[in-house]
């Protein structure tokens, strides 16, 4: 049987092409696209991430702290913390302004917690998109 | 700060809509493809919400 030819990995483009774009995309949702003059997409992404994050706050969702312990605890808390952190300035601002909702029972709080993480995950998609545009893999 | 309380259904719909918008914008190359892909994602979310909802309803007996 013929062996499948190995796929060559694309080399990582120089960081000066995309570093500032991805950093801005993290800090301000939609900011990376705005820097790349994709205003319409910047507005939609910024609005989607910000509205989801605000709903998370208004539903009194809890922010994750990077706790470690058994595997499941570590995955949930560290993963959740990274998801929260991915919202950039929204997370930093909420934390600096003293938002510290304890994790309490109730479906609204639970959805709020998930909304906060989902906002960060959506911002990661926006960051990846901004990266691809910045290095010319996408229009 | 205002307090928002959504039902399970409203919260699921809201999240499905937001994620579909982001997937649509980031997932395709032309505006038309983006719109179709976003709508398709939202449709899949709706199917999953209703499908799993009925599954849980019948599962509980």
Description of the molecule:
The complex is a heterodimer of chains A (139) and B (61). Chain A is an all-alpha fold and 139 residues long. Chain A has one domain. Helix content of chain A is 64%, strand content 0%. In chain A, helix 1 packs antiparallel against helix 6, helix 3 runs antiparallel to helix 6 and helix 4 crosses helix 6. Chain A is globular. Chain B is flat, with a radius of gyration of 15 Å. The mean pLDDT of chain B is 93. Chain B is mainly α. In chain B, helix 1 packs antiparallel against helix 2. Chains A and B meet through helix 3 and helix 6 of A and helix 1 of B.
Summarize the structure.
The complex is a heterodimer of chains A (139) and B (61). By secondary structure, chain A is an all-alpha fold. Chain A has six helices and no strands.
CA gyration radius of chain B, whole angstroms: 15 Å
- Major β-sheet profile of chain A: none
Shape of chain A: globular
Q: How many strands of chain B?
A: 0
Strand content of chain B: under 5%
Number of domains of chain A: 1
Structural class of chain B: mainly alpha
Q: In what range is the share of β-strand residues of chain A? A: under 5%
Helix content of chain B: over 70%
Element order of chain A: H for helix, E for strand? HHHHHH
> What is the mean predicted local confidence, pLDDT of chain A?
92
Q: What overall geometry of chain B do the principal axes of the alpha carbons give?
A: flat
């Amino acid at each position: 049987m013929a062996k499948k030819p190995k796929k060559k990995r694309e080399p990582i483009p120089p960081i000066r092409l995309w570093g500032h774009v991805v950093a801005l995309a993290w800090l301000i949702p939609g900011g990376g696209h705005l820097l790349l003059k994709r205003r319409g997409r910047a507005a939609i992404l910024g609005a989607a991430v910000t509205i989801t994050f605000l709903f998370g706050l208004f539903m009194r969702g809890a922010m994750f702290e990077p706790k470690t312990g058994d595997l499941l605890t570590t995955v949930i808390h560290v993963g959740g913390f990274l998801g929260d952190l991915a919202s950039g300035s929204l997370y930093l601002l909420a934390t600096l302004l003293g938002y510290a909702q304890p994790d309490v029972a109730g479906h609204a709080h639970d959805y709020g917690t998930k909304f906060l993480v989902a906002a960060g995950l959506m911002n990661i998609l926006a960051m990846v998109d901004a990266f691809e545009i910045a290095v010319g893999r996408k229009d | 700060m205002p307090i928002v309380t959504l039902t399970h259904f409203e919260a699921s719909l809201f999240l499905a809509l937001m994620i579909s918008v982001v997937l649509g914008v980031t997932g395709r190359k032309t505006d038309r493809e983006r719109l179709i892909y976003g709508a398709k994602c939202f449709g899949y979310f709706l199917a999953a919400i209703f499908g799993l909802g009925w599954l849980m309803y019948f599962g509980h007996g």
